[in-house]
Design goal:
Blueprint (H helix, E strand, L loop, with lengths): L6 E7 L3 E2 L5 E2 L6 H14 L2 E7 L3 H12 L7 E6 L2 E2 L2 E3 L5 E3 H8 L5 H4 L3 E6 L21 H4 L9 E5 L9 E2 L2 E2 H11 L7 H15 L14 E4 L11
Parallel strand pairs: 1-4, 1-5, 5-9, 9-10
Antiparallel strand pairs: 2-3, 6-7, 7-8, 10-13, 11-12
């Protein structure tokens, strides 16, 4: 009897950045490599075939997703991206942006037939702007969403979930021990909560970051609020190996 195809995971972590002239851009993202390696080990234990890639340019990131379109896949495809970013984009190690819409376009192209019908799950650890979340409670009644914040959601292909480290317009925190968001994800995947349906699992990650995480030092007291968007039509259990 043939063995079922193994689910795949692509983990991309950018820690060091260079501009077009080869000069250093931004600071080194200390702590990001270690947590990406830990997430890769966890996913391997959960029966994923993991590809971990360090310091890739914008073009190389696109190429990695093109390659995934040509591979055989199991029940799920998981991708974790850890880098600098801006609203709707993550940065390659050449400091060039990769639009999330471009990644989704690649995965929904005719070349991606192997990925079309299986759940695709993204965790994006990157800033989405320059604002700092001070954790202020704001009451809001009937406000209209800002179109620019949600325009790239419209390009998400079928059977796809995207979870962001922070809300639109805000920064995502990282220190030498790792990021608020991915550390919370690690905690959930290492515990019994990994057996939950994906939407409940992500809600647990939200809770961990909202109530257990807070910036220290220069940004003492600042908070972070992950959020996710999904167009799945049924519960899935991608980490209940």
């Amino acid at each position: 009897m043939s063995q079922p195809r193994q689910s795949r995971a692509l983990v991309i972590v950018n820690t060091d950045f260079r501009g077009s002239e080869g000069e250093a851009a931004f600071g080194t993202r200390r702590g990001a490599r270690r947590e990406a390696e830990k997430l890769s080990r966890i996913l391997s234990r959960l029966n994923y075939k993991v590809k971990l890639m360090h310091n890739k340019t914008a073009k190389e990131i696109e190429d990695l997703y093109q390659q995934e379109c040509r591979r055989e896949h199991g029940e799920y495809f998981v991708s974790i991206i850890s880098s600098h970013g801006e609203e709707g984009a993550v940065l390659g190690c050449d400091a060039e942006p990769v639009k999330l819409t471009r990644i989704f376009q690649i995965l929904s192209s005719e070349k991606g037939l192997a990925l079309t019908q299986i759940p695709k799950i993204f965790f994006v650890q990157a800033c989405r702007g320059g604002e700092f979340d001070r954790g202020v409670l704001v009451e809001c009644d009937g406000a209209e969403p800002t179109p620019d914040c949600f325009s790239h959601y419209l390009s998400i292909p079928p059977h796809t979930v995207v979870m962001f480290a922070c809300s639109p317009g805000y920064v995502a925190f990282l220190n030498v021990l790792g990021s608020m968001f991915l550390q919370a994800l690690i905690k959930v995947l290492e515990g019994e909560e990994r057996h939950l349906a994906l939407n409940r699992l992500m809600t647990r990650v939200n809770w961990q970051v909202a109530f257990r995480c807070q910036a220290r030092g220069t940004y003492e007291g600042c908070k972070e609020m992950p959020c996710f968007v999904t167009n799945l039509l049924q519960d899935v259990f991608p980490f209940s190996a």
